Description:
The active site is at residue 14. InterPro entries: HAD-like_hydrolase_sf (IPR050155), HAD-like_sf (IPR036412), HAD-SF_hydro_IA (IPR006439), HAD_sf (IPR023214), PGP-like_dom2 (IPR023198), PGPase_prok (IPR037512). It comes from Massilia aerilata. Helix 1 packs across helix 4, helix 3 packs across helix 4 (69-90) and helix 5 (101-110) runs parallel beside helix 9 (217-229). The strands form two sheets. The chain has a five-stranded parallel sheet, sandwiched between helices. It has helices at residues 23-36, 44-47, 55-63, 69-90, 101-110, 123-132, 156-165, 179-188, 217-229; strands at 10-13, 20-21, 96-97, 114-118, 141-143, 172-176, 191-194. The chain is an alpha/beta fold. The protein folds into two domains: 10-21 and 96-229, HAD superfamily/HAD-like (Rossmann fold, 3-Layer(aba) Sandwich); 23-90, DNA polymerase, domain 1 (Orthogonal Bundle). It binds 2-phosphoglycolic acid (PGA) and magnesium ion (MG).
Amino acid sequence: xxxxxxxxxxxxxxxxxxxxxxxxxxxxxxxxxxxxxxxxxxxxxxxxxxxxxxxxxxxxxxxxxxxxxxxxxxxxxxxxxxxxxxxxxxxxxxxxxxxxxxxxxxxxxxxxxxxxxxxxxxxxxxxxxxxxxxxxxxxxxxxxxxxxxxxxxxxxxxxxxxxxxxxxxxxxxxxxxxxxxxxxxxxxxxxxxxxxxxxxxxxxxxxxxxxxxxxxxxxxxxxxxxxxxxxx
Length: 232
Ligand SMILES: O=C(O)COP(=O)(O)O
Ligand SMILES: [Mg+2]
């Protein structure tokens, strides 16, 4: 991160692939939907590169494994309803916290940062999942993929958090696992840090335009602490 820049006063943290390994939940819900459509199950390695652009895109990509565009349009509403029903029934059952997530949130809070969670996951899935995994109490603000008119990679959700916090984007860092998070952050004028263990649409993490790769949220907190100690 640029030295001499403003101190970082808030962090906007992504959910899927950054705090929680949720592909096992997606596997259960998507295969429940596929079974309802009389389609065979798919594996996590097929699902992982499809995660991160929100539910509509995910359902369309999964249906495209078997159906042409006209058939996808014809079954989309039924498939989405089935997916939502299955997801809500299993939400968090198999998802796990990545190492040092809670420790990282604690360290960020101890640095005095305000915390927001911005995810492309629908808010109806996000809220119960954050509760179930003990993540909810850490966040002052949470936006899901359908909370606002646009989702990441559009900068709008990040700009909204900056407005809500009354902070300039240059005093805010986004922490995420994918190019989505980085593109949104760059367009908003926020710093961006990337974790290497999540889901980046099947692309190497090094291809992401970020201010640094950090192995965990705890490492992100250490980097931010070093940055703030040299900032004006
Ligand atoms: O698209 C999703 O459902 C998850 O996206 P996220 O990585 O923004 O949390
Ligand atoms: Mg993500």
